[in-house]
Predict the structure of Aspartate--tRNA ligase.
Amino acid sequence: MKKYIAEIPKLVGESVEVAGWIHARRDMGKIVFVDLRDSTGLLQVVFVPGNQELLAQAMSLRPEFCVRIRGTVNERPEKMRNPNLITGSVEMLAESLEILNEAKTPPFEVDKDTMPVNEELRLKYRYLDLRSERMARNLRLRDQVVSFFRSWLRNEGFIEIETPMLTKGTPEGAGEYIVPSRMHPGKFYVLPQAPQQFKQLLMVAGVERYFQIARCLRDEDPRGDRQFEFTQLDLEMSFVTQDDVLALNERMMIDLIKEVMPDKRIAETPFPRLTYAESMEKYGIDKPDLRKSKDDPNELAFCWVVDFPLFESGDDGKLQAMHHPFCMPNLEDIHLLDSDPLKVRGWTYDLVLNGTELSSGSIRIHNRDLQNRIFELLGMDSEEIEKKFGHLLEAFEYGAPPHGGMAPGIDRLVMLLADEPNIREVIPFPKTGDARDPMMGAPSILAPSQLKDVHIRSDV
Ligand code: ASP
């Protein structure tokens, strides 16, 4: 069994096997140096004269060949040590080499930062792009962040529950991806924009503390740094006030930074709290960047923005939910629902980090009549309400507890922690700005027979 490169410094004097990819090869006269890379780091391997066959084999190695090498781990002489490498105190003296698979010349160099490379090319060859150090580091950071959330939340009594991908629409304010049903001609599933209704129904089910690393799918027009699939840390709690949800999330973020990114500094704790009105008045925006210095990559300025209006006025002059239609109106404003709905504040909140909206959340409505009234204010008639949300309204009639939650975006959070300029750098397989996957070639045309199976006729 091979040893991982990160373990090699502990194995001085032993003959061990390593395996990975050729990162670089340097021929120094009769000696060949190879930097071998595996998922844990880089190791210098030396091929010396003596075994001519082995040396000739080493000279044939090219970048990204996949190899297995056996050799003895030696301490490097003092002045040859490389403090920048986790294995910088050692090197391997090769005894045998097996080429497991040759590699074509990669379309870009993976031993360098791939940021300047054309992005379409990086996405087409994402499996090579992910070999580069920065991208591999981002994958690991993402894993650390997700693992942290899992164990932290479990410790607080949350349980992780998966909710369906094939479901019925839940309005989070974006378009929906639809999936035709083969077994039910003319009917469609919808991919979830968020597990919003399911998590609320889990509160009715008595779960009290739920979380999920939730995949969300939104068919939106390309805008800025947006992805059509993204991941949220979706959570929901019963019997809580807004302050409870904010306090728990604040503690979680502070502990995350301490554990995963100890070099970063949170500008201010407790996180400053602004109302939506204050934020708009002072900063002209609902996601203010409160960093003292925008040049300090280690400064993290979190803040809460609270008291968002429950509604805004849509292009057609109709009311629309500012966040989503399940948010609880602030009880102080509830008397304005009919007379001046745009003045009604919601128990809604956003968590903002360095000017990026990291999360939205709210206390939810858990009362049938109130929820029905909100749907009506949003312009739905009773038939539409029953068709779309009858199940939720009915559930509220079975002792639904008061509840609330939020859903921090994992991609954005990891992006900010990794100091990356966009979320594609921290998503393993992102889509292009126009929703394509150049590697898989998605979306793609299906065979007419496949379409027929799902009762679809295509005009293109
Ligand atoms: N489901 C909401 C969203 O995706 C977040 C929440 O209210 O918990 O925007």
Summary: The mean pLDDT is 96. The chain has eleven helices and 19 strands. The chain has two domains: 3-99, 125-423.
